[in-house]
Design brief:
The complex is a heterodimer. Chain A is mainly alpha-helical. Chain A has one domain: ABC transporter involved in vitamin B12 uptake, BtuC. In chain A, the strands form two sheets. Chain A has a two-stranded antiparallel ribbon with strand order 1-4. A two-stranded antiparallel ribbon of chain A has the order 2-3. Chain A is globular, with a radius of gyration of 21 Å. Chain B has two domains: 167 residues, Rossmann fold; 74 residues, no CATH class. Chain B contains nine helices and ten strands. In chain B, the strands form two sheets. Chain B has a six-stranded mixed sheet, with helices on both faces. In chain B, strands 2-1-4-5 form a four-stranded antiparallel sheet, with helices on one face. In chain B, α3 packs across α4, α3 packs parallel to α5 and α4 packs across α5. Chain B is globular. Chain B starts with 5 loop residues before the first strand and ends in a 6-residue tail after the last helix. The chains are: A mainly alpha, B alpha/beta.
Chain lengths: 344, 252
């Protein structure tokens, strides 16, 4: 794994905790945790842009909501649609939208990038908000969950909340592993270089705009996957999914959780979500508490919540080419390449 | 006469009303060290920026090995074999020295749009990065971030990143700027080594170093080429002496 062993240990415990959670939980918290894991996938996908590529997208909810609406559109009124069919359609739609929005956006940078991604997302929001055929501002129900199986044989039943919970948990782990692998591959090295110094990255021979666009499409597709899961688990899609509040919320998860760590944004989604849940039982002034929390984290935990985890369990994250290198050993180069094909 | 590897014809660049590079026509012969000297503000760095694609020219053309590269973006110019180093150290501060060189080395893969195999498993990139680190003399600083090495070493790393891209033509913008005498000596040695089988185009203010490594000198003043010739010819050129003496009060 790309993380230092103690952090990996922490993550394994967290996953184990999530795996046994349904046995101790009532239905409300089961569905709530499903939602938090979905938000974790969503936040992780944005971290690829903000934390690794240096693209501060303020319109990430566009892909989340679009994929949900696409599921509502392809689901017939009174029967289920196959997962094998609906998932590629929804992810393809999100990817296409990310390609178009990204094509325009990556030409800009800084504040202009923030504004252009926001503008595109708000355009989509108003489209769905005004579209009465899709429920307008009330949103639209998805009455039948996607069917997972072949013919009459159903493999898993997505109408069962516990099954959905585990389906989302498996998706969360899969997305984390996929991004981890990508970030260690040549592509991941390039986007991290772009974040550090785009000008020099271009001077070294990389077409940085293409790499940024590909990162944008990957992140948009994964956000679409999260939106798909949200639509499956809740059975409703509303314009709020596309609203800039949602883009801002997921950005807060990334920043509070810890940019550039992948697991940090998941923690951010969980901690903010749980805090919200607890606070609203005591007081109506959730936003006040949230504000204090944000100020606290920004002032005292510059690396976010993940920075705290890193401090407790291991070293802070960094660019890791040296994974396979056995550290220490009196400074000699001791290489243990996985494929053993190192040439001298 | 050997076919030049890189040529410019009437190359110009203006910024608003200021003409930084004015109708520069130069031939750079392969395998030679060609130094560009001149007072501050003569347009030397702008010329390098035009050659490397960092800036688009306002007029004229650039040809590399018979191919017109005037409008190519910087990343394409790097890929076809023109590497450059910067006067103002331009590195990746968060990464270690090795990782800085790695990024140069990895850029020579056909594409880095590779998503699954770990970067560290690309043995040829590994070897190229280590070689560059070794050539620029930073093997002993391999795993340190630039913040923990000296300014002169950062300058060496700047060159190392360019070496890792294995260019045919090196565009070096004041490689010795800010180096101590020992570091300077090491880099001059490196430049002499490189000169054996590469083309070097070099801007430098350290005249001892210039005369130690350059085969040809071009003197630029006010964006124009004043003279081109061997070090001896330039040394004895009256116009050049005037230009240098006359530039004292005009430095900006």
């Amino acid at each position: 794994m790309s993380l230092k062993a103690p952090v990996t240990f922490f993550l394994l415990i967290a996953v184990a905790g999530l795996a046994v959670f349904p046995h101790f939980s009532d239905e409300f918290y089961l569905e709530f945790f499903t939602h938090l894991m979905v938000m974790g996938i969503f936040a992780m996908s944005l971290d690829l842009l903000i934390g690794y590529t240096g693209l501060v997208s303020f319109g990430h909810a566009a892909f989340f909501g679009l994929a949900g609406y696409l599921l509502a559109i392809v689901t017939p009124q009174d029967e289920a649609v196959a997962l094998w069919l609906s998932l590629p359609v929804c992810l393809g739609g999100a990817a296409l939208a990310a390609l178009v929005i990204g094509w325009f956006s990556v030409r800009t940078s800084g504040i202009y990038f923030i504004m252009i991604t926001l503008a595109f997302a708000q355009m989509l929001f108003y489209y769905f908000n005004e579209n009465e055929a899709l429920g307008g501002s009330d949103g639209i129900f998805i009455f039948s969950k996607p069917f997972v199986g072949f013919g009459d044989w159903q493999i898993i039943d997505l109408a069962n909340p516990t099954t959905v919970y585990y389906f989302v948990l498996a998706s969360l782990v899969a997305c984390y592993l996929l991004l981890t692998v990508m970030l260690r591959a040549p592509f991941g090295q390039v986007i991290q270089a772009i974040r550090a110094n785009e000008h020099r990255t271009r001077a070294l021979g990389y077409d940085t705009q293409r790499y940024k666009l590909v990162a944008f499409v990957i992140a948009g597709t994964m956000a679409g996957f999260a939106g798909y899961l949200e639509a499956v688990s809740t059975g409703i899609v509303s314009p709020g999914h596309l609203h800039w509040h949602n883009s801002g919320l997921v950005m807060m998860h990334v920043i509070l959780g810890g940019m550039g760590t992948l697991y940090g944004p998941i923690l951010g989604a969980f901690i903010l979500g749980l805090l919200h849940d607890q606070v609203q039982e005591v007081t109506e002034h959730w936003h006040l508490v949230q504000g204090v929390f944000v100020i606290f984290v920004v002032l005292f935990l510059p690396r976010g919540i993940a920075g705290l985890v890193g401090r407790l369990f291991g070293r802070p994250p960094d660019l890791d080419l040296e994974e396979n290198r056995v550290a220490g050993e009196d400074g000699n180069k001791v290489d243990a390449e996985p494929n053993g094909e190192r040439t001298k | 006469m050997i076919e030049p590897i890189l040529t410019t014809r009437d190359l110009s660049k203006s910024f608003g009303g200021l003409v930084a590079v004015n109708n520069v026509t130069l031939d750079f012969a392969p395998g030679r060290v060609h130094a560009i000297i001149g007072p501050n503000g003569a347009g030397k760095t702008t010329l390098i920026n035009l050659l490397s694609g960092d800036l688009p020219p306002s007029g004229g053309s650039i040809t590399f090995k018979g191919r017109n590269i005037t409008r190519l973006p910087a990343f394409e110019i790097s890929r076809i074999g023109l590497g450059r180093s910067y006067q103002k150290t331009n590195i990746f501060p968060q990464f270690t020295c090795f990782q800085n060189c790695w990024l140069g080395a990895q850029s020579r893969l056909k594409t880095s749009m590779k998503f699954f195999r770990p970067a560290a498993a690309y043995a040829e990139v590994h070897a190229r990065a280590e070689r560059a680190l070794d050539l620029c003399g930073l093997t002993h600083r391999r795993d340190l971030p630039p913040a923990q090495i000296s300014h002169g070493e950062q300058r060496q790393l700047e060159i190392g990143m360019m070496l890792a891209t294995e260019p045919e033509v090196f565009l070096l913008d004041e490689p010795l700027a800010g180096m101590g005498p020992e570091e300077s000596e090491a880099v001059v040695r490196l430049l002499n080594d490189l000169a054996r089988d590469h083309t070097l185009i070099l801007i430098e203010h350290d005249m001892d170093a210039v005369f130690a490594v350059a085969d040809l000198l071009t003197v630029m003043v006010d964006g124009r080429v004043l003279a081109t010739g061997t070090p001896e010819e330039i040394r004895s050129n009256a116009e050049v002496q005037d230009a240098y003496l006359g530039s004292g009060e005009g430095q900006a």
